[in-house]
Amino acid sequence: MSSQTLKSVIMTKYCLLLVVLLSFGQTHAQNVKPVFGTDHIPEMRLTIRQSNWAQVLDSMKIYGEGMIVGAAEIDGVKYPNVGIRYRGQTSYTYEGDKNPYQIELNYIHPDQNHQGYKSFTLSNTLRDPSYLREYLGFAIARSYMSAPEANFVKLYVNNEYAGIYVNIEPVDADFLKRRMSGAWTSLFKCSPDLDIDKGPENCKKNTFGNLEFEEDANCYLYNYRLKEGDGWQNLIELCRILEQEPTKIASVLDVDATLWMHAFNNMTANLSSYSGQHSHNYYLYRGQNGLFSPVIWDLNLAFGSFKNTGQGSDLSIKEMTELDPFLNANNLTKPLIRQLLADEFYRKVYVSHMRQLMQEKFRRDSFRKECEAVMTRIKPAVSQEKNGYYTMDEFNESLDKTVGTRSKIPGLAQFMEDRVNYLKRLDDFTVVEPEVISVDVLKRKENETAQLNSFTITVIAGKIPKRVHLYYRFADNKAFDSILMEPKPDDKLGNGEGRFVTKIKPSEGEKTLQYYIVAENTAAVAFYPKSYRQQPLTITLEELN
Prior knowledge:
This protein is of the alpha+beta class and about 550 residues long. Helices cover about 30% and strands about 25% of the residues.
């Protein structure tokens, strides 16, 4: 056999082996369960070669922004040269046994990812003996607004079990890309470092991330961090309009998404948020439609675990269950709440969102059953912890009993039952809501030759409707426009019912209409469909013709 032939044979065998190995790797990766799946707790293993790695991570957390380089393995899939560091403010402790982590798979290799995710945020469930607050909080929030994925993960560091963590999808460029392709321009984190100096003397003090307007642009640098893109001037303009021209706020802010955030925070007594002492733990991204939208963040202190509103001392658990649904409605230092709730229509929308949360997520004992199901799933992993913050007895009793003599963390399920029972008795939650009885879009009749080039929509609403609003758009990345539908008298309708009609004429090339309805009476509003943020009604000109 010639040397050339031998080389050819060796090369062929090498290529075949490479194909087999690649095929095995692809098959193996395909068999790995979703990292954010709901029926599986992934296993993450970190390997850090430095003998004093914990001290190095402490030093990086306190003094710098770097990361230690190690290796990661997620459900058997190995990733070399990943970045590892401690994260968190109140959840981090010096020389702590169970500190939160930030994992960057792409720290050295830019394209390295696990199922499309390049980084992970691991929360250590501090001040949450149930381990459920972030996992369930984000699951609820995702039904109504932009919020990260979250799942549990069993973490090992150098083959030692560190405990069960909540793995949270970071809010970054990839987060926005997964949800809205390239239709965004900037991303700000509104979570100031509470320990640093607050900037020049002329800046307002203790504003945190509350969006108060400042004349000096330098003041914003200490309370907001530009994470992606550019747009400082846009953020400043948002703050200016919020203070000086609040009637124009819908031109720069997704008001509905913001009202959902406020409703979620108040319903779950989440005061480690914009609603509480530090006006923090949320992001703002600006879409190409020119509107800022919030993304909720850091929910380990939700459901009554953090108790300070910024006004006076900490609240008692009873005061938290009876938290005013219109908390901060008159607070000058909370313009994002005060200015929106000052508008009668927005106030009705806010109450409607809280009511929907009660009906869909906290109705009777549905929330308790969900808590129990998840606790059963994670209990084996919790029981193996050596460095957890709570005993197994405290974990087992965490749905009903208050844990801790100082922090006094309320029992999760009992707290929400008491909270909902309190809210249901208030006047704003006992009023009669309007209802959308039917929605019809005019179609071309069989004997008509002319093609329809517009959308004529008729809504019949009940419970004494005063107005009916139609929200519509012609593309996913566009903001919804709104129009008041015209009332049309109809003797055939029953008492308290009304017919409303409007015509929407698209521009050239626009053929698909996305829309939803908001019926309004004197006391309340109602949305149709309820899932309008994720699944608005859709109709095409082709369907009409």
